[in-house]
Amino acid sequence: AAAGFSTRLITAPLDLLKIRLQLSPPPLSSTSSSGSRVASLAASVASREGAAGFFKGNLSATYLWVTYAAVQFTVYSSAHAFLSGLSDDRSSGPGHFLPGGLSPGAVAFASGAFSGLAATAATYPFDFARTGFAAAVEGRSGSLVGFLAGTVRAKGLGGIYAGVVPAMMSIVPLMGLNFLAYETLMQHLSAQPASSTKNKNVNAGLAGALSGGASKLLVYPLDTVKKRLQQESFQPSSPRRYSGALDCCRRIVVDEGAAALYRGLGPTMIKSMVSTGLTFAAFNATKAVLVSEWERREGIGY
Known about the structure:
It is a single chain. By secondary structure, the chain is an all-alpha fold. Helix content is about 75%, strand content about 0%. The chain contains nine helices and no strands. The longest helix is centred in the last third of the chain and has 34 residues, at about 200-235. The chain is globular. This is Mitochondrial carrier protein. Keywords: Membrane, Repeat, Transmembrane, Transmembrane helix, Transport.
């Protein structure tokens, strides 16, 4: 929870720019660069909405990040311990159990994928509200509860879960690859001669940044599809444009070109690397403090 809270405060502006770009229409000029569109959007938000505009939807996003991180790390630790325990019990060495075995990398991937599914299911309405506030949806209450209640009245309970299918589809490879790359990089960095407990948090931040950026790049189109489906649910009176996730992806490619699936990728990559790096670093630092305090109270080592 501490990791999610601290990371959200730092990356909120990048998150808002990414969502606005994903939901924006195609640029009028095909020659305009991604960087210029990001700069133009940032300038527009600053002039029209002020500095506070970069933090629209921050309350719902903070709930999302805090709850998501708490569920994710808890489930990951439990799943990893469970799968590793099976490996130790059913074979002569860790990392292999059942016919064919399951490597440590597969354990990390499976644990990460399952933790991502659990966290997404637990927090999806917050994600929906974050997108709505960031997109500056009109005609809805400014409060989190009011926004969600208004959507349920207009679209039913399923309205606040618009886009959940591509979200679930993307979270499995995203979190699976994220934790797999993180565990692999941490093993490599920890084996270096200069590695020590003192710089473990730095290593965690570096490994988290690299793994977060790589995994996000691979699944980014599904995130764009999710945001478009969420946006459609914000319009209670308009007919449905997309029949589902696959139709949404097809229509984006046909109407706007395949590059539209990657709109907003620039700030997303920066945000993903910064947020994932900070999250892992903050998680390791907070965990170290809590474990140290627990050991002190239990009299371990004294």
